[in-house]
């Protein structure tokens, strides 16, 4: 950036930081991109100078905006201090490769000095987490989704992930599948968003290397943070998907550190017992046999997805087959190894905080 001293009119150049260098190098190698590039002034106009903030994430703030033709937008303005530009590169490199009804559309981007923004289609119902966690203030009676809607959402997310994983030449691994990153349109059709932690690999790469764990606590596959469980692969996304589906069923975080009894702390363990005994699931809102079948398919599929050994987890193609098939054809999976802790809720929550931090992304590199 050029600076001018008002007294002596001496001009000099400030060396771009590493993030700027990385982003500009990426754009040079991959440009011109099919996604439109906007100026920062354009972004300010779109968002009316950032007056309507609709979200906050680890990588920046999200504002509602609109194009000149009135088309609504969601504009993510990335934090200047976060990372080395990888989150921007990941978003543009991955989403610009995609075109699927269950993947959020990237309509444009802005890179101007240290300022970076990503421009998406606007999803009027926001994120899935608003509608599934009972402690959420959005979760009033009239916001609770019916089981049929939740089932279709789980199926749509599965189709989006299957699309990412089955690319002809390259495969996209998301690494941060969770309710917060699933957006819902006016018809509650889901779209996978936030590719800041994603990695692109070739189809031949069955196992990929990572220097650090990445993802969000509660959804990270065991092998991502401890290689003794196996290699990191697209099956790591399958695990995250399974944990999320079980949260959709339970209407709460899988790990409930505030539960009165240790058997209630870990929801997958609780629901597995009922499935194993072919018992009533004990969930609210199941009105008929059709609802019951859909919920049982979601539970069974979710439990298969969170198997500790990655090789025991289904592919996303198989997940779709399980969800669309008959409930009678599904086998009860082995009990997930990582189950309810034997310690008290207080001890368990304390250990979580010390080991991982408090419910946030573990890595952004």
TrEMBL record:
Keywords: ATP-binding, Glycoprotein, Kinase, Membrane, Nucleotide-binding, Serine/threonine-protein kinase, Signal, Transferase, Transmembrane, Transmembrane helix. The keyword Cell inner membrane does not apply. ATP binds at residue 76. It is found in: Membrane. It is a single-pass type I membrane protein. Residues 48-338 form the Protein kinase domain. It holds the Pfam family Pkinase. The keyword Transmembrane applies. InterPro entries: Kinase-like_dom_sf, LRK10/LRL21-25-like, Prot_kinase_dom, Protein_kinase_ATP_BS, Ser/Thr_kinase_AS. PANTHER family: RUST RESISTANCE KINASE LR10-RELATED. Belongs to the protein kinase superfamily. This is Rust resistance kinase Lr10-like. The gene is LOC125418295.
